[in-house]
Amino acid sequence: MPIHVAITRRVRPGCETAFQQGLREFFQTSFAQDGVCGALMLTPPPDSDSREYGILRTFASAAERDAFYASPQFKIWDEYAHQLTEGEPEYRQLHGLEAWFRTPNAPPRWKMAIATFLGVFPVATGLSLTLGPAIKNWHFILANAVFNACVVVLLTWVVMPLVTRLLHAWLHPNDRKPQP
Questions:
Q1: Quick one: which of 155, 177, 174 has its CA closest to 106?
Q2: Residue 179's pLDDT band (cuts 50, 70, 90)
Q3: What is the pTM of this model?
Q4: Residues 68 and 85 reside in one and the same domain
Q5: Closest Cα partner for 177 from 13, 35, 26?
Q6: Do residues 125 and 90 both lie within one domain?
Q7: Do 44 and 73 have their domain in common?
Q8: Which domain holds residue 127?
Q9: 3-state helix/strand/coil string of the chain
Q10: Which of 3, 85, 125, 132 sits at a 20 to 30 Å CA gap from 35?
């Protein structure tokens, strides 16, 4: 299953053009490394005061992600980028639903809807049978807030990562086979 990583960097004032050009060049050379499946630069909106740039990277596996970030090529880029940015970059691995939006060839919405239904239905049913009776006498708003918070937590960190892993070949039929 592909690994998706979101990186945020704050570019120093006046260094925006050099950062963008350097990142584009690094993207081109980085695609030669095994396991690098995609990269995307997110720039601040025009006419905004933001200097935060986003980088979304996709790797074939966790091992190839780790090899990429340990490579001399990445270390050279990182050293160069530190000269153009403020503070440390923030790295965050994307999981489940949020990873769909990173995939270069995202599945059609109807497939995402079916996958979501396959996650939501058993979670909502299971919680209705277990949590529902325990909170049935609570105030309507509080009971719904607790119930829905449990649904969101279970979907985000447990169910949807599992569903997307199990349905990977169907959601992304053109991707390389997942690494064990």
A1: 174
A2: very low
A3: 0.62
A4: yes
A5: 35
A6: no
A7: yes
A8: 100-171
A9: CCEEEEEEEEECCCCHHHHHHHHHHHHHHHCCCCCEEEEEEECCCCCCCCCEEEEEEEECCHHHHHHHHHCHHHHHHHHHHHHHEEEEEEEEEECHHHHHCCCCCCCCHHHHHHHHHHHHHHHHHHHHHHHHHHHCCCCHHHHHHHHHHHHHHHHHHHHHHHHHHHCHHHHCCCCCCCCC
A10: 85
Instruction: Let me know: does 34 contact 28? Beta carbons within 8 Å.
Output: no
pLDDT exceeds 50 at position 178: no
Residues 77 and 116 grouped into a single domain: no
Contact partners, residue 65, CB within 8 Å, separation at least 6 = 3, 5, 35, 57, 59
Q: For tokens 């599992």, what's the residue?
A: 162
Let me know if residue 146 belongs to a domain.
yes
Q: Are residues 130 and 56 in the same domain?
A: no
